[in-house]
UniProtKB/TrEMBL annotation:
Keywords on record: Acyltransferase, Transferase
Lineage per the UniProt record: Eukaryota, Metazoa, Chordata, Craniata, Vertebrata
Alphabetical GO biological process terms: carnitine metabolic process, CoA-linked
Gene designation per UniProt: Crat_1
Protein name: CACP acetyltransferase
UniProt GO molecular function: carnitine O-acetyltransferase activity
Name of a matching Pfam family: Carn_acyltransf
Domain Choline/carnitine acyltransferase residue range list: 4-182
Cellular component, GO annotation: peroxisome
Gene3D superfamilies membership: Chloramphenicol acetyltransferase-like domain, Choline/Carnitine o-acyltransferase, domain 2
């Protein structure tokens, strides 16, 4: 249950004549942008906890498939994720599961692939994403542990562990796609 929150307090600002017109211009611009937004909401019974296809994971897998379709390959991707359950104020990076996403993307491109196989690969990729999400939210993701190792070496004046000097590490941490869900 949530606790009732106090009513927000209205803040009053004293805006001088030199900035007042700019604030009004910005307000009109923001209002015009807001007026140009269309929001369509819908509900689909095939997703959610009961169906096993979590919408958040499905969106991340779909982004991987879309990138594959646009570029012919997957890329280093991260989703910043709050660790508020284990480390308040900290975040970690959630990476999508590459092999299941690649298998799904390739099957969706294959005109001979059976829909049952495509659906099975979709479920496998979404479950792999769910599994990774649970791992990271529990504080068991590798990204912050690696960052801690790197920072500890720097703080101790030690040479960086060789993993950080490997070109593959540099490529794996050059994120071409960074996603964030609201």
């Amino acid at each position: 249950t949530s606790l009732p929150l106090p009513r927000p307090q209205r803040l009053r600002f004293s805006i001088g004549p030199e900035i007042g017109p700019e604030v009004e211009r910005a307000k009109r611009h923001l209002d015009s942008l807001a007026a140009d937004v269309d929001v369509h909401c819908f509900s689909h019974e095939g997703f959610g906890a009961g169906a096993g296809l979590q919408p958040e994971a499905l969106v991340q897998v779909a982004l991987q498939v879309a990138f594959y379709r646009a570029h012919g390959s997957l890329c280093a991707t991260c989703e910043p994720t709050s660790l508020r359950g284990v480390l308040p104020g900290c975040t970690d990076l959630l990476r999508p599961p590459g092999p299941p996403c690649l298998a799904l993307a390739q099957a969706l491109e294959d005109p001979d692939a059976q829909p049952e196989l495509q659906m099975a690969l979709l479920r496998e990729a979404v479950e792999a994403q769910n599994s990774r999400t649970r791992e990271v939210l529990a504080g068991q993701g590798p990204e912050r542990h690696l960052q801690g190792l790197r920072q500890a070496a720097i703080a101790a004046g030690e040479p960086l562990p060789e993993i950080f000097l490997d070109p593959a590490y540099a490529q794996a941490t050059h994120f071409r796609l960074c996603t964030l869900q609201v």
